[in-house]
Amino acid sequence: MRSEIELEHSLPTGPYSVILGLGYVGLPLAQQAVRSGVAIVGLDVSERLVSSLNAGRSHVDDLSDADVGVMLDAGFWATTNPTVVSGAESVVICVPTPLSEDGGPDLSMVRSAGQAIGARLSAGTLVVLESTTYPGTTEEVLRPLLEEPSGLVAGRDFHLAFSPERIDPGNARYGVANTPKVVGGLTAACTERASDFYGRFIDTVVRARGTREAEMAKLLENTYRHVNIAMVNEMAQFCHELQIDLWNVIELARTKPFGFQAFYPGPGVGGHCIPIDPNYLSHRVQQQLGHPFRFVELAQEINASMPAYVAHRAQDLLNADKLAINGSRVLLLGVTYKPDIADERESPATPLAKRLMGLGAEVSFHDPYVTSMRVSGVSAVTGDLMAAVAAADLVMLVQNHKEYDVNALVAASRRFFDTRGVSRSGVKL
What we know:
Blueprint: H1 4-10, E1 17-20, H2 26-35, E2 40-43, H3 47-54, H4 65-73, E3 77-79, E4 90-93, H5 108-118, E5 126-129, H6 137-150, E6 159-162, E7 181-185, H7 188-198, E8 205-207, H8 211-241, H9 246-254, H10 277-289, H11 294-320, E9 329-333, H12 349-358, E10 362-366, E11 379-380, H13 385-391, E12 394-397, H14 406-412, E13 416-418, E14 427-428
Parallel strand pairs: 1-2, 1-4, 2-3, 4-5, 5-6, 7-8, 9-10, 9-12, 10-11, 12-13, 13-14
Antiparallel strand pairs: 6-7
């Protein structure tokens, strides 16, 4: 942690903003702000992460070490010392909001951030929460943490707003600058102050009616995807039984120029958004209204069941050739939750590997972006991929990275199970 003297000499001489949380959301946001001439100080609790960034090393897929170097040259730096909040004109909270062990919201990091800011909050400061959460969090959870220790009143003495993050790792077309930014303030003045801040480095700012509407917008976006993915995942199961090629069905439906958006089945859903965010909404509805959000709960049940279904299909493929899955060598290709990135958060490859191992399979994996899986007993293929494919009893495409020549992999394998529907001749989900 930097000393107070070091901080005084390191802080920008003019107005600056603090981004609290330098992960997949906070760091790209900081990069775009710095590009546009906004002075940014990064704040994070991880000394390792802060030291790495200040040394010019990136931990985020969409930013290279060179990108971080450019940020540092422009005046960006990171610290673990929350004292930097005291002089900031704006503070943006980008901390994780995972699920707790009981499946409910875990806002511990939001609360910690609020406490750190509240103890150092100055009049006139803008505080924005970007972490995905249930409607009401900004006003009911964060606001008291800011007001009580500071003695300031939100909407009168300082500005408070919510702006949902819309970071899509690996998306080459839409980044921070050209993805519209939704902003909802506690008051109209708070909304305008937050809109002015984001408008300095984001092309389009969309004003919400309030914080709850902005919070709900993010949950609607991801719940929409969650429910539709669950629908096609369930369709994949019965289309297999009915001997219908669902992949062809989807391509046919896509030819309709209106009223249809294509969603595709897979081995499960991953990342921070889809497996987690809709559960925040479901929890809020149950807690506040006393009844379930049935669409979300059903979608969660279907999507969470896909790794088990895929493992069962793998067992059937081996049984068809009179091979037991117990003792069979199964090779998983691609274990990240999205193609062409190194992000394993909530990847369905993890429960799939565990399920296969529970059935007695000898599981290995290959991924150009990952060197080890968080599953004990699963080995990585480090040598000749084609040789490993040829030696496996069953090869399963779990994530379709661009690096894979899928049809060549199919040709080299004894049995190929394509859970992404991209091969010409592999058995598809």
